[in-house]
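Case study 2.
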Amino acid sequence: MPSAPQRLSSRTMAFILAGGRGSRLHELTDNRAKPAVYFGGKTRIIDFALSNALNSGIRKMAIATQYKAHSLIRHCQRGWNFFRAERNEYLDILPASQRVDETHWYEGTADAVYQNIDIVDSYDIDYVIILAGDHIYKMDYEVMIREHVESNADVTVGCLTVPRADAHAFGVMAVDHSGRITDFVEKPKDPPALPDDPARALASMGIYVFRWKFLRQLLMDDANDPGSNRDFGGDIIPNVVRNGKAMAHRFEESCVRHKAEATAYWRDVGTIDAFWKANIDLTDFDPELDLWDHDWPIWTYSESVPPAKFIHNEENRRGVALSSLISGGCIISGTEVRNSLLFTGVHSNSWSSLDQAVVLPYVTVSRHARLTKVVIDRGVMIPEGLIVGEDPAEDAKWFRVSPGGVTLITQAMLDRRAGKA
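Prediction:
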C-alpha cells in the first residue's frame, strides 16, 4: 500500500509580520499593536494567522514585532507556549533589536525577514509563507503551498476576489487565464479586472509563499539596492512579477468554511467601524465566521475565570442578554444586554443597558448607564448615568465618533470629560 504524500506544511515555516500599529484604529492601538487588539470575545487578531498555520500542519513559526509589542509578546508567551523543540516545533518572537547595527530597526516588511535570515536558516525548511498578523479569516495554507509547488512558481500570492470598484484600496494583481501575475499595482485608480470577469479584481491578502533559498537571495539583493523601500508589496513582489514567475492563489480555493454554501470570509478590521461590525456580526443567528468549529479551532490564551453570571429579575432591573456573546468572568447584574459582545470579566450594574456594544475585557459599567453602538477599551470604568449613542454631537465632544456612528470610549477620554486630565 503506497504511503500518503508528506504534507508540504511540515517542510514550511510561517513568518508572521506583526509590527504595525494600525493607526486607523486610533486609541485602540495607543498601547498595543494592531495584531494584539482583542477580537471575538476571547481571542486577539494575531490568533487567526497563528491558528491557521497550526491547523494547516505548520509547526515552525516566527513573529516579527516592532510597535509597542509588550502585550503581543505576553499574549504569545502565555497562549502559544506549547511548541516543543524536541518535536522539531518552534515559535520565535523576533522584536526589532538592532541586529544589523545600533540604529537599524525594521525598515519594511521585507527587511523584517532579511534581518532574521540566520534564524530562518536554522529552521532547515524548504518553503516559507509570509503572513500578515492583522486579518480575520480561516485558511488552509497547505492548499496554497501545494499549488505553489505544483505550478513551479517563484512566488505565489494569496488573493481576494473583490468588486473592481472596491479594489483601489488594495494591491491589485493583473493575471492571465492561467493565473500567472502579469502586473502588480498598489492601490490603483483604475484596477485591472479579472480576464473572465470584468466587474471583479484580485486583491493581495499580504500572504506570499516562496522557496526559502529563492527568497533568501531576493532579500540579500534587495538589501543591497539603495532605491528599495524594503517592502514585499512595493519591491519584492513586483521584482518577481517582472523577472520571474508569480502566480495568484484565490482565497476561495483554500478558505475554511463551516458549511459548503458559506461565502469566503476575510476581514480587515483596521478601522473602528470595521472592527465594531466584525465583532457585532458574531451575534447573528448564523454568523459567517464560525468560532464554534471544532475541526478548525482558533487557539488562544484562555484565562482561568468562572462562568458568566446573570443576577436580578425585577421590572427594569433584570440581568439578561439577548442575541449576544458573553464571555467567562462576566457579571450581568440587573443590566439588559442586546446584540452585544462582552469580553472576559466585564461587570455591568443595575438599571443599565448595552445595545450593539463591543466591550473589551475587565470593563465596569456603573448603574443607570445607557450605551448604544459603542466600542469600550479594556479596563474602562463607565461612570454612573453615562448615556452614549443617543446624541452624536454630544458624544463627539468627549469621545471618538467614527464615520459610521460608532463611539469609541477609553479611560483617558472619560478622565478628560470628568476634568481629571
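The chain is about 20% helix and 30% strand.
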